[in-house]
Write a structure and sequence with these properties.
This protein is an alpha/beta fold. It has helices spanning 25-31, 64-70, 75-80, 85-93, 97-113, 129-145, 169-188, 206-218, 235-242, 255-262, 272-277, 286-292, 312-321, 327-334, 336-340, 369-372, and strands at 10-15, 18-24, 36-40, 44-47, 49-51, 116-122, 149-157, 194-199, 222-227, 246-249, 267-270, 296-298, 359-362, 379-384, 387-390. It binds N-(iminomethyl)-L-glutamic acid and fe (iii) ion. N-(iminomethyl)-L-glutamic acid (NIG) binds next to helix 4.
Length: 391
């Protein structure tokens, strides 16, 4: 996949939030004289970027952990000492829904300002029924308040909360709370499209993942997994076996894991910013995944602990420089495959008639400049469902 069709002086005609035609502005003026039109004479127009993996609902940032890691403490070690996810959980529980909404709103606007027009948002820093529902309701309010398309995911299985760790029997109690109370309630209130889980040695085991995602499926929810992020455990294979929509992270995926994903419909979502920010030299084996036939999506993993970035184009830089993708492969990962990772491949991610009018316009002259000017801000305007998201 190495050719990109690059359009210049383009306009997009829209009707009812959908693209009806894409082409040179002068042609569209003639062929669609009365249609609503978005003119993009200057710059490079792309499908709106699709960030299919974020943890955007949190309270305080966790900048103090940067220096702990720099001094040699590992991510899991910080978590074992009550930091990491647990510190975000303590903080989120202390905040009201209104407060969390006020904190999330400008963060999501900043994501949109970089060209993202669809974002997946996970809960997962509550870990009680009420605090998880509170997080998902914040996502629902963001959907109503912002033009950007938002896909909600329930991540009650982000960790085993600290209060369930005194006795070994309590672990099963929390898992029962997830399967018997939280997931049914989330499904009943239609608060999430996906259920996700941190399936990783030291967090949730494969058997527990099977149980929790089994309950999700029973209640009609689609599946995602944080899989093989730090150690290979068979999580990618399980994602493929369960028919998960995506398996995410995969920096430590095994050979059998690669083969399993390639043989399945499960999208391999890679998050190169996370490994960079954690100071790891290892990245997911993107070339091996592509060679085997897996579909690769890219995402920011925006979260307060391991990837506090809202800059999707920076992920394109990392995809090229660290994952060794071509610019065309990276763009595919940010658009069509990102949409597939959210079950939205027929709706968004392409500049074609019938697709949602989700567009991003960048102040560059060649698409290859988007990953090139790394860390820059080049998005001048963006639209979701034909409505301005930015600019
Ligand atoms: O995707 N791996 C688990 N969850 C997040 C990190 C969350 C956190 O540290 O707050 C991730 O990297
Ligand atoms: Fe994540």
């Amino acid at each position: 996949m190495n050719d990109l069709r690059v359009l210049t002086n383009t306009a997009v005609a829209t009707e009812n939030d959908k693209i009806t035609a894409v082409g040179p502005q002068s042609d569209l003026e003639r062929s669609h004289p009365t249609a609503a039109r978005i003119d993009c004479a200057r710059g490079v127009l792309t499908p709106g970027l699709i960030d299919s993996h974020t943890h955007g609902i949190f309270g305080k940032p966790r900048f103090e952990e940067q220096e702990l890691r720099a001094s040699g403490l590992g991510y899991m070690e910080i978590a074992r000492q009550g930091g990491g996810i647990h510190s975000s959980v303590r903080d989120l529980r202390s905040r009201s829904e209104d407060e969390l909404f006020a904190l999330a709103l400008p963060r999501i606007k900043r994501l949109a300002a970089h060209g993202t027009t669809t974002v997946e948002l996970k809960s997962g820093y509550g870990l009680t029924l009420d605090d998880e529902l509170k997080s998902l309701r914040v996502i629902q309010r963001l959907q109503a308040a912002l033009p950007i398309r938002i896909v909600p995911t329930f991540l009650g299985a982000h960790e085993i909360p600290l209060e369930y760790r005194a006795k070994s029997s309590q672990r099963a109690e929390y898992i029962a709370l997830l399967t018997d109370e939280m997931i049914p309630r989330v499904a009943q209130e239609k608060l999430a499209t996906f259920v996700d889980i941190f399936c990783e040695p030291g967090v949730y085991t494969l058997d527990e993942t099977r149980k929790i995602l089994g309950a999700a499926r029973t209640h009609g929810l689609a599946l995602k997994l944080h899989a093989d992020e730090l150690e290979p455990s068979g999580a990618a294979e399980l994602a493929a076996e369960l028919g998960a929509t995506s398996a995410d992270h995969l920096a430590a995926i095994s050979e059998p894991g690669i083969r399993a994903l390639a043989a399945s419909q499960t999208v391999a979502t890679l998050l190169p910013g996370t490994m960079l920010f954690l100071g790891k030299t290892r990245q997911a084996p993107a070339r091996d995944l592509i060679a085997a036939g897996a579909a690769i999506a890219l995402a920011t993993d925006f979260n307060p602990g391991t990837s506090p970035t809202v800059n999707f184009p920076l992920m394109l830089t990392l995809a090229v420089s660290q994952l060794h993708l071509s610019v065309a492969e990276a763009m595919l990962g940010a658009t069509t495959n990102g949409a597939a990772a959210l079950g939205l491949a027929a709706e968004t991610g392409q500049l074609s008639p019938g697709f949602s009018a989700d567009l991003a316009l960048f102040d560059i002259g060649d698409i290859r400049e988007l990953p090139y000017w790394y860390g820059d801000h080049r998005c001048s305007r963006s639209w979701a469902r034909g409505k301005a998201c930015h600019g």
